[in-house]
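Subject: mismatched residue count in predicted assembly?

I count 976 residues in my input, but I want to confirm that the predicted structure covers every chain. Input:
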Amino acid sequence: MDGYTVPNFLAQRAFLTPERQALVSEGTSLTFKEMHSLVLKRAAQLSKAGVKESDKTGVLMSNSLDMAVTIHALFYIGSTAVLLNNRLTSEEIAWQSNHSQTVIIITDEQCKSKAPVNICETVSIADLPKAESGLKSFLAEFPLEKPATVMYTSGTTGHPKGVIQSFGNHYWSAAASALNLGLHHQDRWLLALPMFHISGLSILLRSVIYGICAVIAPSADARLLNSLIHQQKITIMSAVSTLLTEMVQSMDGKYPDFFRCMLLGGGPAPLSLLQKCAERGIPIYQTYGMTETSSQIATLPPEDCFTKLGSAGKPLFPCSISIQNDKQNCQPNEAGEILVKGANVAKAYLYEEAELTDSGGWFRTGDIGYQDEEGYLFLLDRRSDLIISGGENVYPAEIEGVLLSHPDIFDAGVVGMPHAKWGEVPCAFITSRKHLGEQDVMKYCQEKLAKYKVPHSVRFLEKLPRNAARKLLRRKLKDILQGESGNV
Amino acid sequence: MDGYTVPNFLAQRAFLTPERQALVSEGTSLTFKEMHSLVLKRAAQLSKAGVKESDKTGVLMSNSLDMAVTIHALFYIGSTAVLLNNRLTSEEIAWQSNHSQTVIIITDEQCKSKAPVNICETVSIADLPKAESGLKSFLAEFPLEKPATVMYTSGTTGHPKGVIQSFGNHYWSAAASALNLGLHHQDRWLLALPMFHISGLSILLRSVIYGICAVIAPSADARLLNSLIHQQKITIMSAVSTLLTEMVQSMDGKYPDFFRCMLLGGGPAPLSLLQKCAERGIPIYQTYGMTETSSQIATLPPEDCFTKLGSAGKPLFPCSISIQNDKQNCQPNEAGEILVKGANVAKAYLYEEAELTDSGGWFRTGDIGYQDEEGYLFLLDRRSDLIISGGENVYPAEIEGVLLSHPDIFDAGVVGMPHAKWGEVPCAFITSRKHLGEQDVMKYCQEKLAKYKVPHSVRFLEKLPRNAARKLLRRKLKDILQGESGNV
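Triage response: the counts match. Full output below for your records.
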């Protein structure tokens, strides 16, 4: 589809349905028309501050109306937005802005202390030059191939990679999701995940492409989110397991009938949580996606959300999934590496020549899973997190799921530790509500898991290392183990 | 988005949601899984009959389950389907199949008498070789650029042109429509327009891309269609003005609450009809589209369907519209040629080197219209149908709208006739319910139209010439006038 364009997402929406509610954020409510004119002004400010179409601009902000407006304003100028994770250390952020060659970083009060020094200019929103009127000439059309955003993937080994998401990738992703979840004009999507991750950004973009309202949550407090669902007439929310666990725990009664979809991503979900949600009538749509696929690539279809617990569903309509071992397609129920394909999949990493996908269009995700006889995807783990114990594949997520089903275990993470006889064995890290002994935990696991999957060691932590999207950072658990062995 | 593919539409749908109802046709109901296996068998039959991936295959059929299955089967083989209008004469059909170089034409009992002789092989569905099992290997992925269908446009001058619609064009069209009309899982679309036109074919394709049911109407009888809406729980229907007029006239009571959208295309709609529908609570979404745009390119947004009567709305989300006179953009309310843009617009006509669109991606439609201050599109006419009378632009559709508002006029068509003083003047053709005199009609028009727009002559016909999509064929009316002057 070379040579085709799409209209500037927000400008088109402001033209098509100017009076619809676009965004709610901490007491402020904007229509698409109002948002368009705010964005034009912000674009004029950014332009005065030196942001150029040809450059990459860093965004180091926390979720807010300001952040949403800034991202759109960069699209209006045509500058590629490099979305920087505000939970990273200053050093990590400095590495990413240096690598991406951002010319300016836009930041806010909350994040500015993390802005790197001596890499490039940094401007806080509050310090932007004033603009009397909006940007005169803005990018009215987005070429499908044009880079819209760059996001660095955590990267389990080596340096993180900057995924280039084009405007075409974002459009295909949004349309594909609508073909699965449906699109109702009264839909309102709760945005409680960070916009520097694709899980959060994609909500902002969908709201504009669909012409529906995005409600930006002021924090990820579980009670607050539960009450927002009622107050703000939320119909769809995106969440990850840890957040959802907290929401279910602090939930009184049921969600209202207009709430039609809890889109649950961020890796394999513990079955105990899914069962709890099913009992409470929360319609969970487990999903699978990553930065490289510009959000979801597989999601449960509506008819299966109470019947296929534990599955991340089937590919979205314009996407495909394949499971391979040694480049051979796997049989049903046989675990292997997950390969994905679709026009939502990014073409390249920043400053890397090689395309992400092979000649057949497939992207090797590095994740492990299987498809059942009907083609439903079940995620097992990241390949890099796989524990191979005595020749057996052990999936940390499976063990974590068992640990989390224990009434007194609040959070759990499992990694491999070296073992003289078995090569590797599982080691569990947990946070518990009341005092638990290592033996109690092991005994519980022995009842539910094959012997080789039972953790050989259990460590008790105050809190598990999770990233901004609340994804477990297993490599930080490995660091703990390595620190110990280094000390031996 | 070069290099990207989408999965085979029907095969993907049969994989994703196998048990959903796909198609209802004269007492037969099929799920997507059942339809997929029927299509595989039909593809095997067609393959045995000599249909090849590299070839173009004619489809000369009337709306039926068989026609839907045949179209999909050609996609499965990868052969481009040349959809032949069964209302054309044998000579016209022969010209198109010769021009398109179809190797085989697939036909049915109703249409086979029109199949051209000595151009290429013709096979009736009933005479296809039997197939024990389905096609072994089918086209599992559609490259976005690959030609899916060819449809010849009526062409007001010279020979008709074969519009090549790619799989990408069809997908973008379907997704764009969903972003405007929304997508509900209980949607059921009534298919009462011919599938050899884009208005009908696009319903079949949307039903598969959306995973909803298409109900093929056995005929375009107004009473039958009204009752199908109730019986078949239809939520959306596509219609053209003449058909809708008949439906409203033969309607008892109201449409049920689940009926949410009457998509009205095929050119400017008479205001009297729109008013009648508004009074009866029929949600009319006037739309504008053509073969070259693979269906709709502008459609009223839901919030405007009762407030912007007469407008074809705004562009669909990924599309743009511009009005130009002498390559200059028009002011609001200034009439000019309609230009359109979007990834649903075909790239080329068959065997013509030139692209349809200019370097900026715009396709000049040859239609005349204007946009009001808010950007709502109002269609005036085909440029080729424009009457220029004493230097004034006279739009036949406007006069036809006035004629149709007369209680005794059933159908109306207006064309220009040569005039010594004014260059051209309007001439009206009407069918009336009871006897009307020419003077009665003129007097009625004088009350409602500027003097230069009042027809100079009124002809009474039994029936107006309309094509299969019920579009008025004004050139046939011109033929009548030319015949007269030839006889003088």
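The first helix of chain A runs from residue 9 to 16. Marking this ticket as 'not a bug'.
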